[in-house]
Every structure is written in C-alpha cells, then in structure tokens.
Design a protein that fits this description.
GO molecular function: phosphorelay response regulator activity; transcription cis-regulatory region binding
Helix content: 25-40%
Number of domains: 2
Keywords: DNA-binding, Phosphoprotein, Transcription, Transcription regulation, Two-component regulatory system
Protein name: PAS domain S-box-containing protein
CATH superfamily of the largest domain: Response regulator
Radius of gyration: 31 Å
Shape: elongated
Pfam family, one: PAS_4
Number of helices: 10
Largest sheet: 5 strands, parallel
Strand content: 15-25%
Strand order of the largest sheet: 2-1-3-6-7
InterPro entries: CheY-like_superfamily, PAS, PAS-like_dom_sf, PAS_4, Sig_transdc_resp-reg_receiver, WalR-like
Structural class: alpha/beta
Order of helices and strands: EHEHEEEHEHEHEEHHHEEEHH
CATH class of the largest domain: Alpha Beta
Number of strands: 12
Mean pLDDT: 83
Length: 306
C-alpha cells in the first residue's frame, strides 16, 4: 500500500538507468513506498542532460556505467546547471575508487545496488532526506535574503551571545559592516552599566517571557553613545532576535565613556573575553588617583612676609 509522506510535497525524480527492467522495478517500489515521489526514467547521459536543462527536477538518481558515459560525467554537467540539486549515485559498480570519485565530484549521496527489496526503502529515504534538506536550505537562503534587504535593523544572537547574523541596517547602528558584527559578542557594543542591566534584568525577563522591548544605550559610530529603542525575542535554541526600532544620539557624553571605550569593537579588543566579559572594570576606575596630592607642599601665599 502506498504511503503518503508527512509533508505531502511532490518530489520529481529523474532516474538515469540503462537497464529498463530495473528502472521499471524501481518505479514500482517508489510508488509503493512513497506516493509523493514521481519517477521518470532515461537511459543515457545525453538524454538526462537535455531533460535537466529543459525541465525542473527535485533530484537525480543515476547509475555509474551508462552507454555514453558515467554517472560522474552527468553529475558534472548537472552541477553546471544547478550546483545544489540532490544527486544520488545508485550503482552496482561498488568500489572505494568509485565512491571516492563520486564524493570528490560533489555527489549528494552514494548507494550501492544490492539484492533484496530493502535497498529501495533505503533509496527512498535518502531521496526524501536530500530533497527536504535542499528545500529547507532554499527557504533559509530566501529568509536571509529578505532579512538582508530589510530596512529595519535586525540582528540574530546565538545561545553563546555572539552575533550569527546582522543586516546592513543593524550593523550601521554601530558604524560597522555586517561581517564585522557577526562573530562578535553583544557585550562589546554596550557600556558596562548597560551590560550589567542586560545580564541582571533584561535577559532573564526575555528568557522567562519570551520578549522584551525598551531603551538601551549602545556605542554607535565613532564610539559615540546612542540611545536605541530595542526589541528582543527569545528563540528556541537559546538565542535572541534583536530589532532596533529607532536610534537617537546622546548629546552629552556620560562619565564612563573614556574608560568603557575598551569594550567597543572599534577599540581593537572585541574578541578578547577579558574585555567583553561580565567582569569588566567599573566605568570609573576605583584606582584612579586623587586629583589633589595630600603630600604636596603647601601653596605659597603671596601676602606672606616671612
């Protein structure tokens, strides 16, 4: 009895096999095992190449030995058409040499033909997994493209607090390019007092409630303090999505600007855990010298006569 997959998405497979009886048998098992897979067969590299150029397939399943070439020859041609199309080499020519050649050429999966019916179930699972993964990556690529093109500043933090993504608008808040933000810990962009507030108040609230919105002070372009309206959303993997609603420059510098400059990535140490960690020194150092030296000699009084 044919089983329908959970996704219900149709999968169009081009099967390149010169043994017509084997191709027909494979088609029968595909129909029995997964009704969402549509099996279409050709016998040669040339025919497969023409079909791939003129039509859209979700995956290619190919034998190694073919009348006008090899499965690797076809793989190379297919990669010129679609570098990411799932390509499964399903062959009776099993050897380490063939497997190595296939992997080097960029095959998605390699499966050796064997006796029995279990091989068809394995093949169906490999096809389904490869196609699902390919479709997911296309969705991710489209989502990333949309985020990158968004005019609203958007950043994504991983569970360890480092940026996994920042679009142009988000990076520009800090006067940086996206590549300079990605891989940097969020602490690097905030004065010490704000880091403490995030760690002690804001992040626990985001974790508990899933969302927070409010104001924060960050280092913007040229190390200038900027007030931002920020929204944080907790993700299932322990990270956060950060959206900056608006920014406003702070006209008067706060007293901690000079000593906190070292926490800003433009100061050169953004990857140093001693700089971006929670144990950073207070904004105004407790060891700063007293401006009045108690041991200095008394000032000379100009009215004294002695």
């Amino acid at each position: 009895m044919a089983q329908r997959t959970a996704s219900g998405d149709r999968i169009r497979v081009l099967h390149v096999e010169d043994d017509e009886a084997f191709a027909d048998l494979t088609a029968a098992y595909f129909e029995r095992l997964d009704a969402d897979i549509r099996h279409e067969a050709v016998r040669t590299v040339g025919a497969a190449r023409r079909r791939c150029r003129g039509e859209s397939f979700d995956a290619v399943v190919c034998d190694y030995d073919l009348p006008d070439g090899t499965g690797i020859d076809l793989l190379e041609r297919v990669r010129e058409i679609d570098p990411e199309l799932p390509f499964v080499l399903f062959t009776g020519k099993g050897s380490e040499e063939v497997a190595s050649e296939a992997i080097s050429a960029g095959v998605t999966d390699y499966l050796q033909k064997r006796g029995g019916t279990d091989q068809y179930e394995v093949l169906v699972n490999r096809i389904r997994n490869a196609v699902d993964r390919h479709r997911l990556m296309r969705q991710v690529d489209r989502a990333v493209a949309a985020l990158e093109a968004a005019s609203e500043p958007i950043g994504i933090l991983g569970a360890d607090g480092t940026y996994l993504f920042a679009n142009e608008a988000y990076a520009s808040v800090y006067g940086l390019a996206p590549d300079d933000v990605v891989g940097t810990h969020w602490r690097a962009f905030y004065p010490d007092e704000e880091v403490d507030r995030f760690v002690e108040e804001i992040l626990p609230r985001v974790t508990a409630e899933g969302y927070w919105s409010g104001e924060a002070v960050v280092y913007g372009a040229d190390d200038r303090l900027v007030r931002e309206r920020l929204a944080l959303t907790h993700t299932t993997d322990g990270g956060h999505v950060c959206i900056v609603r608006e920014t406003e420059p702070i006209e008067e510098s706060s007293p901690n600007v000079a000593s906190a400059d070292a926490t800003h990535p433009n100061a050169g140490d953004r990857d140093d855990p001693d700089v971006v960690g929670s144990d950073a020194p207070d904004a105004v150092g407790s060891d700063a010298p007293d401006p009045v030296d108690s041991d200095a000699p008394d000032a000379v009084d100009p009215d004294r006569t002695d």
